[in-house]
Structure formats: C-alpha cells, structure tokens
Design goal:
There is one protein chain. The chain is α+β, with helices and mostly antiparallel strands. It folds into two domains: 230 residues, no CATH class; 66 residues, Arc Repressor Mutant, subunit A, CATH 1.10.10. The protein has ten helices and ten strands. Strands 1-4-5-8-10-9 form a six-stranded mixed sheet, sandwiched between helices. The chain has a two-stranded antiparallel sheet with strand order 2-3. The chain is globular, with a radius of gyration of 24 Å. About 5% of the residues have low confidence.
Length: 305
Amino acid sequence: MIDLLDIKVDVVFKDFFGDKSSKELLESFINSVLGFEGDDLIEIEEFLDPRKMRVEVGRPSTFVDLSVKTRGGERYIIEMQTYNHEGFDKRLLYYLGKDYTEQIDYHYHQQATETEQKKKQKKLIGWQDLPKVHIVAIIDFHRSEREKNGILNNEKVVETYRFKPEISSSNEHLFNQWKATLVDLKKFKDKPLAELKTYKEKWFYLLKNASLIKEKEANALKQDPVFQRALERLERLSSDPATRKAYEASVNEHRDHLAVLSSERKAGRKEEKLEIAQALLKQGLPVNQISEATGLSSEEIESLR
C-alpha cells in the first residue's frame, strides 16, 4: 500500500474534495458534519470557481479552498486551516459577507450582443432573493500555544454559530442567512477504528490520520462504499508524482512559516521579559531576584541599567 498523503495539506484537500466526478465525497462530509438527514440532505449542483479574488486588508489577495452551490440554491464555503492566521475568525466573517453579497453581481440577463451586454445588464436576482451562505472551516491548530486548547471554547469537535438578535426572537428570520461551522480536529479524541460508528467520526478519523493509516485500517474503512471511494481517490492522488511534488513544496512552506511564527513569538516573549525586568530594576529589586522571576541572565538585566 502506498504511503497516503495528509488530506489537511491544502493542495491535497482541494483536489480530494474538489473533484467534480467524486462530489459524493464532499456531500457525505458536509451532510455528516452538519447532521443533515432525510429532506435536509444537500446535493451539490455546481462547484464554484474558488480562484475568485477576495481582497484582504494588508495583503494582495486570497481565495477560499472550495465553494459550491447546492440544488436548493444555498452556497457552502469549505476551508481547511492548519495554523492560526491572525484574525482568522474575522476572515470567516469576510468570506460569508463577500459570498453573500457578490451573488448580485454575478447574475445578469444575457443581452443579444456583446456590445449591448456592456451597455445594459439586467440582474436576475434581487436582495430579497439572495440564497443562504454557510461556511464550514476545518481547524487543526491550537489557539493558545501555552494552553494547547484548540480553537473552540469547550470539548465539542463541531460548533455552529448563527446570527440572532439579542432581545427579540420575532425577527430571527432576518438573521438566518449566514452560518459558520467550525470543525476542531484537535478536539477529536483518537480511538480504535472499530469503535467509530458514524460517518462523522470516520470522516474526522480520515482527515486527522490519513498519512498514518496502515493497510489493515484502510481495508476496514473500505468496507463502507463511501470510504472505499474516498481512499481510492486519496491513493490516486498519493501516487501522482505532480501531486506529491506540490505536496512536499506545500509542507516545506508550512514548516518555514511555523518556524518564522515561533521565532516571532520567542522574540515577543523576550521583549516582554526585558520590559518587566526594567520595571523591577526601577523598583530597586536585586538583580538575582529579577533573574529568578524573569529567567533572564544577570548580564541581560545589568545591560538594562
């Protein structure tokens, strides 16, 4: 059995779930995570272009991992994030708002000629017709390096956030157009494959452990048709030289980025310790006590005088 690639890495994640011929994989994942059953089950009608540029404050541009439209007309944004971007939660809000409002700009009546199209364009939908937008963000990072507590506030792997009025529930319909679901893989507790009973648990297991799965575990997962197709898809990607090359480049870039972040954090902590030491010096505390309290050397503290 070929060594499987890590689905969480962006180039693999986009190819794995973004393959139009295997849309049932993304449908299964979304329906399982969000607990949709019966008439609520979604079917993907269209994969939207994820390369649509979205301007970010202080950055040239960015784009989402996956964006789809369901047969019911709703739109789903799927994001995979393995390290803590500054302002990540605000980015999710931006994506929701951008996807929601930009639909007005992409629905035009086609005129007879190209010249007429440029001169007069008629919108097919209005504000009252805008479909709902739901973002599903899969997270695999710790919000706090010190506490190692994942991103969510409790032990739930999945949390869905809705926008509701503070006081009156009578106007709830005005606030139900956006939803954001966070899937925190750090909160998913590993357990033997035989104990995984639901599609949701199996998807979490595959996302978290794909690169660690052995042949015995793969064969057990393949007993289910959905995960047989999923593993066959991942095996094809893992055996493709171009995908492996892009994967390795992405992993190296990710490692370099984390090294830079770690260096910046250490520099920030050192600066904070120096500031504390300087304040303690002004209060007249002995150098040896300041050294014990801050972890700085006597020489570093003396240099602050």
